[in-house]
Design a protein that fits this description.
seven-stranded mixed beta sheet; alpha/beta; 9 strands
Length: 243
């Protein structure tokens, strides 16, 4: 969650010191969760060459080319996701990477760092929504490789325009207002590029005017995802099932 978000719970001092663009979280509950907080992490022990190797679960999943984006998107989370994507591309540029997304959104700049890396690397990045992909999370979900973007049946997707706030001189406020409008146009262009159902920028702008929550079926109809995953009965070439 970015410092420029105007969600309830921010102190005046915190908003005053904010200096970057951001997205509103989808709920007050999500806004109180810190991506830097403690997360219970299971460990997996394997027998390799007669010896024992112990991994945390996320490192073990990384070996299977699975990356998990959990919690608020900030600079720390973004740096970790970008590093994992670059590492997996260096190992096997032609193999697919699966990015599992469960986030209420967060910083625009941190999220765009992930999006640009997904587009930059040679490996196709399949995106899968588990839980929720709200705000910047919905853009990352939509920005996955063509025909490789999925949602689980009970996941929630939310889109809206960026929000921000700035305190200072009138001339500086005008500069920041101009910048957030530029970013809004840029983000709308990204959605336009990836939606499977053609829409004009004007239609997308109207769609993003207010918070719009969707289930998996509605996200599929809108063109944010390409399929809904249920069970692994029928699989794609890369092992993901399309219902």
């Amino acid at each position: 969650m970015s410092g420029l978000s105007l969600a309830r719970g921010f102190s005046k001092a915190a908003m005053y010191n904010a200096s970057r663009l951001g997205w509103r979280p989808s709920s007050n509950l999500s806004s109180t969760q810190s991506s830097n907080g403690w997360t219970p992490t299971p460990y997996v022990t394997e027998t390799v060459g007669g010896g024992w190797h112990t991994y945390d679960i996320f490192s073990r999943l990384l070996k299977e080319r699975i990356v998990c984006l959990n919690g608020t998107v900030d600079e720390t989370v973004s740096a970790s996701i970008v590093a994992q994507l670059l590492f997996l591309e260096a190992e096997s540029p032609d193999k697919q990477i699966n990015l599992y997304i469960n986030t209420p959104g967060g910083s625009v700049t941190a999220g765009l760092a992930i999006y640009d890396t997904m587009s930059y690397i040679a490996s196709p990045v399949s995106t899968i929504c588990v839980g929720q992909a709200a705000s910047m999370g919905s853009l990352l979900l939509c920005g996955g490789a063509a025909k490789k973007r999925y949602a689980l049946p009970h996941s929630s997707i939310m889109v809206h325009q960026p929000s921000g706030g700035y305190f200072g001189q009138a001339s500086d406020i005008a500069i920041h207002a101009k910048e957030i409008l530029r970013v809004r146009e840029q983000l709308n262009g990204i959605y336009k590029r990836h939606l499977t159902k053609p829409r004009s920028l004007e239609e997308i702008e109207r769609l993003m005017e207010r918070d719009k929550f969707m289930g998996a079926e509605e996200a599929l109809e809108l063109g944010i995802v390409d399929g809904i995953l249920d069970r692994r009965n029928e699989t794609t070439e890369e092992g993901a099932k399309i219902s």
